Amino acid sequence: MNRLRGNVFHVTTQNAWPRIRSEEVVLSNPLAHPLIKKWEYDAYFRSRSHVSLCDLRSVRDSDLKTALDAYFFLDPRDGCPDPAFLLLSRSAVERIVTYDEAIDDAKKAGQMIVPFVEAGYPGDLPLAEITDVLIVDIDRPSPDPFLVALKRYGH
To answer: Is the N or C terminus of the chain more exposed, i.e. has fewer CB atoms within 10 Å?
Structure first.
């Protein structure tokens, strides 16, 4: 977490990182890409053709806890490969729409926005605007077979 504090970044999976590297872009409309999983919620920034970001430049600890409860970006995709954090350049950060700038509009539209930390980059995010990539392997406990069975059969 300390490595992410003070930065703005996009969270993706280690499986998606090679595609981003080869295409040299993080897509603002990934739903059009045949290899990208569709999200089931009405995301504010995605609906406005922005790349969703986490902005940890000046978030207070209590607000960060609230944000992590809403979207656990440290390991965001249950059952998916480990995360990759793409840290933005200073010039890219200058273009983002911050949470404070977007929250009123998101509320009016009835759309989801992660409290205090979500921001958006307008349009596709060029790979040239990524200054560092942090690849994280997460040690997850083995799932309890009983809980897996309950989840699988909807109980």
So the answer is: C
Q: Look up residue 104 and give its two tokens.
A: 């009123």
67, 66, 46: which is closest to 55 by C-alpha? Answer: 67
Q: What is the pLDDT along the chain (155 residues), one digit of tens a residue?
A: 678 899 999 998 888 899 999 999 999 876 555 555 554 456 899 889 999 999 999 999 999 999 888 877 776 655 566 888 999 999 999 999 999 999 999 999 999 899 999 999 999 999 999 999 988 766 655 555 655 555 566 54
* Residues 111, 103: Cα–Cα separation, whole Å: 9
Contact 8, 56 (CB under 8 A): yes
Determine if the pTM surpasses 0.85: no
Give CA separation, 84 vs 10, 115, 140, in Å: 8, 21, 16
